[in-house]
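Table S2 (text version). Query chain:
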Amino acid sequence: MSHARKFASTLGTMFDEFRAARSVAAAMDAGRRPPERALRTLGLDGSIFNGMYR
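Corresponding structure-token output:
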């Protein structure tokens, strides 16, 4: 893999994780349970939010 492709791949992953973190933070701030897809992207276990949000 060329350096440019590796850089682009890493940059894309970073933006995906940033979007997921922003989505989780917005949901928590609004008092909602964060989306499963965002939690999976960040490598978090969704069960830690059971009972905290509706």
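Notes on Table S2: DSSP finds two helices and no strands in the chain. The CA atoms of residues 9 and 49 lie 30 Å apart.
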